[in-house]
Amino acid sequence: MIGSLRGRLMRKRATEVLIETNGVGYEVHVAINNELPGEGNEVFLYIHTHVREDALQLYGFMRDEERLLFSRLISVSGIGPRIALATLSGLSVERFAAAIEGEDVAMLSRIPGIGKKTAQRLILELKGKLPSIVPAKDTQYEDALSALLTLGYKKADIVTTLDVLNKRGIKDIETLIREALKYLSEGATGTSDN
After folding, report:
1. pLDDT digits (tens, 9 = 90+) for 67-126
2. Residues annotated as region Domain II (predicted)?
3. Distance from C-alpha of 187 to C-alpha of 38, rounded to nearest angstrom
C-alpha cells in the first residue's frame, strides 16, 4: 500500500492531481478545498490507497487527520470514496467532528450526497469515535473556544473559525478572540440556517 507521496506537482485540477516521483506519475484524487502549491512545486501528501476489483485509486491529503477521517467515513455503510472526499471538501476535520458530536444533522445534510438519513447514520456510527482523529489544541485554543461558546456562537462555526486563524499562525489569546469575533460577526463561516 502507498502511505504517502513526495514529488513534483505536474498537473493540478479541482479534484485530481498528478505527482511525479522518480519518473513515475501518480494520479491522486484530492479534496476541492486543498491547499496544494502551484504546478511545478514539490508536494507531500498522505495517501489512502483504495483497492477495488477493477481499479486501484489513490486519495491524497495535506494532513494525516484528513486521511484518517476519510478512512473512517468509507467504513460507514453507504459512504463511498466520492462522498467521503466531498465531505472533506466541504468541512474541516474539526468542523466535521464538531457536527458529529453536536448531532448537527442540518450541517451534515448540506454535504453533496448526504441526505438526512445518511447524516443520522454518520452520527450514530461515528459519535464518540473521532477524538483520536482530531488533533489536540493548545490551551489558548481551548480558552478561545470556551469564551466564544459563552457568547452564544455555534461550536461548529467557532471550530472552523479558530482553525482558519490557527493556520494563519495567530496564537495570542486576545488576538485570537478579537479576530474570531470579527470573522464570526462577518458571517464568514456561513452561520445562517437557510
Report:
1. 999 999 999 988 999 999 988 888 888 888 888 988 989 889 888 888 899 999 999 999
2. 63-140
3. 29
Buried b (16+ CB within 10 A) or exposed e, 159-168: bbbbbbbbee
- Cα(101)–Cα(109) distance, integer angstroms: 15
Map residue 115 onto helix, strand or coil.
coil
Print burial letters for 78-88: b (CB count within 10 Å at least 16), e (below 16): ebebebbbbbb
E strands, the chain, are 4-12, 16-21, 24-30, 42-51, 56-61
Least confident of 37-41, 55-59, 169-173, 179-183: 169-173
Helix (H, G, I), strand (E, B) or coil at 131: coil
180's enclosing H/E stretch is: helix 173-185
Judge contact between 133 and 173, C-beta under 8 A.
no
| pLDDT tier at 187, thresholds 50, 70, 90 | low
